[in-house]
Amino acid sequence: MSEQLALNARDIRKSFQIGERTIEVLHGTHLELRRGERLCLMGASGAGKSTFMHILGLLDQPTEGSVEVEGVNAWGLSVNERAKLRNQRIGFVFQFYHLLPELSAIENVVLPARIAASHGANKIDLKEINERAMEGLTRFGLSDRLTHRPSQLSGGEQQRVAIARALILDPPILIADEPTGNLDTATGKKVLDLLMEEQINRGLSMILVTHDTRLADTCDRVLTIEDGQIQSDSKFDIPH
Ligand SMILES: Nc1ncnc2c1ncn2[C@@H]1O[C@H](COP(=O)(O)OP(=O)(O)OP(=O)(O)O)[C@@H](O)[C@H]1O
Ligand SMILES: [Mg+2]
């Protein structure tokens, strides 16, 4: 039943138009993310992982196909309703952090809550959110970096800020697109440990894009994407 799935993407095609040329990156592929599972997605550079993650995270529209978030057909909603759905149900961690350079660490973390408040979401108490952001950043070892701008932070610190931002509204779904791709091994491990801990403590439904086969061993399922198609599940698959 699709309501039991965190995400259900069907028949996804994605093409990009470059001048006269149309490049089809995703060729009618599927993905189901079950509630509470940790799913790893692997695949060669250029295989379409980020393109697919942006579609699953409602950041980009598929050329064809449907994306359901907890049973709701995202592209059947109005722009505002879809923005609200994305804001409140999905956290996204990017490979390149994507923090706003002119905002401090804590202002970046609080931003999704400000957006939620602008959507008229009830239950958004900005004072409480601010405290939650401070508590999150402190837990991530950044209590003395709250007012630093991204340019004043290391890569690992920026990614921890980005994770705190992705989780500030307590979304049930987290998509992390190569979250340690730009970090050295030791820093990357710290960031991943932190992500895994959050996944367990919050019971997140999580997709983790990674090149690290050891990390894939810690996932409930591992999928690979090849030539714009998700390949069938690996030996880690759990039956429905
Ligand atoms: N906006 C765009 N316009 C045109 N082509 C694009 C666009 N975005 C992605 N592509 C193309 O789609 C293909 C897949 O890109 P994508 O970023 O999804 O790969 P990836 O699997 O995430 O790779 P990596 O591991 O290097 O991050 C690439 O060939 C890329 O050039
Ligand atoms: Mg990518």
Plain-language structure description:
The structure is a single chain. The chain has 240 residues and is α/β, with parallel strands linked by helices. It has one domain: P-loop containing nucleotide triphosphate hydrolases (Rossmann fold), CATH 3.40.50.300. Helix content is 34%, strand content 26%. The protein is built from 7 helices and 10 strands. The strands form 2 sheets. It has a 6-stranded mixed sheet. Strand 7, helix 6 and strand 8 form a beta-alpha-beta unit. Helix 3 runs antiparallel to helix 4. The longest helix has 18 residues. The protein is globular. The N and C termini lie close together (10 Å). The C terminus is likely disordered. The chain binds adenosine-5'-triphosphate and magnesium ion. The site of magnesium ion has 4 residues, from helix 1.
Search tags:
binds magnesium ion; 10 strands; 240 residues; alpha/beta; disordered C terminus; Rossmann fold; binds adenosine-5'-triphosphate
